[in-house]
């Protein structure tokens, strides 16, 4: 077994996001203070912990926090700057209009100016709408590998709020100004929706009713037009839901040129002209219904996901981007119970199963259990996260102290 140390001990939750938990130098890990993954709306703190000294610092606090909001959570570090991004509920949250999937945005904090929030996406709910704004809720934000763009999932507040889709934030060509109406947010980025979703896709078509849980494809540092892969819910010929993998190339110039994509009152935000999704996989059963995020190999040749085998066990599946071939590459005699993460070199995938952390070797196609918790130990949750250098793994587990159970951060090194 590997060496493990518990990094946090304060009497609060220390929830890790599924990506970007370590800063660029692997000195700090960022967290929100949830003890329950469903309680972002009730959570008011973002913190960091030093991996060597175990020092904890609070870097953001909401004001007037109640059980109805605003709420914060799901926080990630920028890949090269000491800046984080996280979900933030609307500042006017109250009992009648609480935190929710259509009432949130991305907030950033620079560690050089802690406690000072910087909205990422602009939100404009007063018509006529400003190009590059949203009028719903963005969440599950993910920096692109070079840190210039941010992907997110999105639910509109006014038109078909149940239809989840995927979007991207790019640097604007000029500053966006929105008025100060309640529910509006002045942000730093230009936002666009990049996947069309409809309520009732045609059976056997490539139309989708939900786009979600995406990732950036490969190492895009030298690519001016990178790609995002996402999960899309399709209908097979029998009318059954099947989740497949889709790819969309991101051209910031095309996004910025189509100012009309913002739409009018009563309309959905449209995908900018020239931004087109391509279906990669055509499989029989599609991906697993266990919530997880796609993961890319560093060279962008493969996309990894979860898919069920004939026994109903979640296995690691690999999609070859060039051909779209999707197949299970693990043959475990148990079911993976968490999302997955891939190490920076693209050699190993980590996950949780049977209340333990595992590493799956992508060459040998074998899994190693690297912790030794028993069924009576307090539960692990979330997904382990690799450090930027790849030599460390952070994960969440409940720890009991003085009769109280809190989500704490542990690190394998």
Topology:
Layout: E1 4-6, E2 28-32, E3 45-50, E4 56-61, E5 72-77, E6 83-89, E7 104-110, E8 118-119, E9 136-143, E10 150-156, E11 165-170, E12 190-193, E13 210-216, E14 227-235, E15 241-249, H1 252-257, E16 277-279, E17 295-296, E18 302-308, E19 314-320, E20 326-328, E21 341-342, E22 348-353, E23 356-361, E24 367-369, E25 380-386, E26 393-401, E27 404-412
Antiparallel strand pairs: 1-27, 2-3, 3-4, 5-6, 6-7, 7-8, 9-10, 10-11, 11-12, 13-14, 14-15, 15-16, 17-18, 18-19, 19-20, 21-22, 22-23, 23-24, 25-26, 26-27
Organism: Sphingobacterium daejeonense
Protein name: DUF3748 domain-containing protein
InterPro entries: 6-blade_b-propeller_TolB-like, DUF3748
Average pLDDT for all residues: 96
- Give the C-alpha Rg: 21 Å
The count of strands amounts to 27
Structural class based on helices, strands and sheet pairing: mainly beta
Helix content: under 10%
Low-pLDDT runs of 5+ residues are: none
Tally of helical segments: 1
Pfam families: DUF3748
Organism: Sphingobacterium daejeonense
Protein name: DUF3748 domain-containing protein
What does this structure look like?
Helix content is 1%, strand content 38%. It is mainly beta and 413 residues long. It has one helix spanning 252-257; strands at 4-6, 28-32, 45-50, 56-61, 72-77, 83-89, 104-110, 118-119, 136-143, 150-156, 165-170, 190-193, 210-216, 227-235, 241-249, 277-279, 295-296, 302-308, 314-320, 326-328, 341-342, 348-353, 356-361, 367-369, 380-386, 393-401, 404-412. The model has no long low-confidence stretch (mean pLDDT 96). It is built from one helix and 27 strands. InterPro entries: 6-blade_b-propeller_TolB-like, DUF3748. This is DUF3748 domain-containing protein. It holds the Pfam family DUF3748.
């Amino acid at each position: 077994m590997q060496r493990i140390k518990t990094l946090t001990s304060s009497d609060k939750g220390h929830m890790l996001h599924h990506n970007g938990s370590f800063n660029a130098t692997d000195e700090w890990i960022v967290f929100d203070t949830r003890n329950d993954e469903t309680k972002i709306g009730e959570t008011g703190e973002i913190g960091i912990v030093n991996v060597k000294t175990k020092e904890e610092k609070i870097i953001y606090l909401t004001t007037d926090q109640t059980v109805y909001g605003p709420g914060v959570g799901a926080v990630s570090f920028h890949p090269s700057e000491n800046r984080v991004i996280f979900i933030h509920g609307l500042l006017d949250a109250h009992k009648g209009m609480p935190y929710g999937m259509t009432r949130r945005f991305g907030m950033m904090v620079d560690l050089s100016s802690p406690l000072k929030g910087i909205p990422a996406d602009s939100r404009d709910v007063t018509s006529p709408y400003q190009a590059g704004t949203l009028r719903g809720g963005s969440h599950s934000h993910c920096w692109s590998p070079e840190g210039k763009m941010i992907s997110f999932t999105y639910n509109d507040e006014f038109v078909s709020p149940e239809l989840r889709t995927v979007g991207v934030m790019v640097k604007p060509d000029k500053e966006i100004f929105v008025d100060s109406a309640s529910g509006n947010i002045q942000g730093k980025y230009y936002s666009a929706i990049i996947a069309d979703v409809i309520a009732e896709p045609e059976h056997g078509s490539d139309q989708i009713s939900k786009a979600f849980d995406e990732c950036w494809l490969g190492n895009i540092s030298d690519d001016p037009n990178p790609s995002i892969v996402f999960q899309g819910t399709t209908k097979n010929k029998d009318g059954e839901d099947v989740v497949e993998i889709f790819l969309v190339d991101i051209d910031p110039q095309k996004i910025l040129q189509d100012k009309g994509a913002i739409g009018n009152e009563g309309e959905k935000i449209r995908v900018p002209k020239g931004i087109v999704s391509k279906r990669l996989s055509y499989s029989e059963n599609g991906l697993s219904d266990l919530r997880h995020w796609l993961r890319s190999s560093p060279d962008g040749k493969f996309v990894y996901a979860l898919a069920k085998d004939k026994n109903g066990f979640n296995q690691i599946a690999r999609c070859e981007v060039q051909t779209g071939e999707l197949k299970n590459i693990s043959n475990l005699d148990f079911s993976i119970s968490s999302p997955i993460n891939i190490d920076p070199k693209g050699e190993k995938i980590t996950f949780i199963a049977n209340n333990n952390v595992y590493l799956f070797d992508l060459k040998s196609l074998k899994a190693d259990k690297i912790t030794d918790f028993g069924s009576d130990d307090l539960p692990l949750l979330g997904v382990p996260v690799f450090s930027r250098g790849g030599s460390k793994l952070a994960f969440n587990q409940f720890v009991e102290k003085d009769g109280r159970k809190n989500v704490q951060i542990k690190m394998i090194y």
